Structure formats: C-alpha cells, structure tokens
What does this fold into?
Amino acid sequence: MKIYSLLVIFLIILISPAASSPETSDAESSVKEKEIKVNLPKKGKFYLSSYYDYGWVNQNAREGRWTEWTNTISYTVNDYFTPYAEVNNFQRFDSQYYTLGLGSLLRFEDNSSWDAQIVFGSDIDYVYSFQGRIKYEHRMFGNYFWTLGYRYSDYADNDVFITYPGLIYYFGDNFLSATYNNTFTETRGVAHSGTLKGYFVLNENLNFWLGTAAGERLYDIDETLNASAQSGYIIFTGLDYSIFEAASLILGFSYSQEEPDFIKRSLQLGLSFKF
It folds into this structure.
C-alpha cells in the first residue's frame, strides 16, 4: 500500500500541479485548506508569504507551545499554471523539525482545478518523512462544485491516508463548503470527521474566513486509544487585510480540543507580497 500510494502521488505531480497551506496535524491541515479557486493568483505574479502560528497546548499534565513558521514563494507562469516552493519550521514542545514542500496549481478551461504537492520531512519524531496531497474541484452546475481530496503521510510507525470529498458553493470570490473526512491509520483503523467553512470578501481590502470541524482523531494525540475515544473539534477564524496593493496582513485565531485531555489555542500572524 505504501509503495502504491507513493507512485500515485508522484505520477499525479508530474502531470498536474498545487497551492500551499501551513501544516499542522494531518486532519487539521485538511480542515483548514482553502478551496482551490480562492488560491488562484493572477498571471505574471510572484507571490511571497511568511506565516507564523503560535499555539498554547495542554496535553494531559504537560503544558507548552507548538509553533509553525511557513515561508512560501510562487510564480504564476500563465492563467493555468502556478508552481511553488515552501519551507516550514515547526516546534512541538522542545522538539523542532523542518519540511520542504514542492508543488503547483493547475486550472483547466472548463473551470475545474487541480491542486497537488509533495512534502519531505527532516526530523520524523513528530512529522512524516514524506507527504503527498492532491485535490480536485469540478463544476456540477451553476456555482456548485464537487471536490475530492487525498492526503498520504509516511510516518515511522504508521502511514496515514485521508480522503475528503465535499461540496462547494462559490458566489463571486466567496465560498461556503462542507467536507467529510475519512482518516485511515495503518494498524489502527478508520476515524471520521466533518468540516464546514466559509470565506467572504467584505470589501476590496478585507477578507474574512471562519470554519469548524468535529469528529475523531483530529490530532491523534494518544496512539493507544480507539478513534471513538478521541473525539474533538476545531474552531478557526481570520482576516486578510490589504495594506496596499502589493502587500497583505493576515491575522487568525483557532481553538481546539480532543479527548481525553488535549487543548490547543493558537494565534496566527502573516505577511504576503505580490509583484
């Protein structure tokens, strides 16, 4: 299964490319992904961004911080193709690790989109040694789209496979979406969760998003437990404010809980530039 998944991911990367999002846990990353059309940049544009997430974590009797620092560069070659590279630094309590992501985003003339990426991890105590992600959106009728995503992560102990089909309603540059997440962990079975998200353009300078997810193994903190004993939820929201035409400020907040005893509170700050 591991070899098959690696071949599938690499073949899809070669024929169709992705956009990026900051990594956290596998399930949380899937939950917080923006829909593809919102990420589509304009032709001939370089894009640079730096995004920092500072989280306060209570895990059983342990307290500490989880941080994420994500740096991305991309260039839109034409109206259909945008490759990118991403470097991430993560801290989990006293441990640090890095990931390098490569990918691209492909848009078709029928208004469908394909998003894919591969990511390599350095210190695999907390992170995968390899991850591949693919996502496809296709118009059903009017402004309604169906979407299907797949994320494979190669961990030292277990491989994780997440499949997430969903529905999206676009209106202008805004969207509402609902997604079902099926997470299969080798030797430990399947976990289920669902996601609701919204993204709204309030005016020419200000965008707003919010979302929530609820279900099993959103963080998978205790690997000795069954999925039914690891229920939890995530609430997240944020603003994207255009300081001037070429620069934007990103502010965000999220709150998460997972049974039996995990709480995470996070603040996000980011800057992006396009030229």
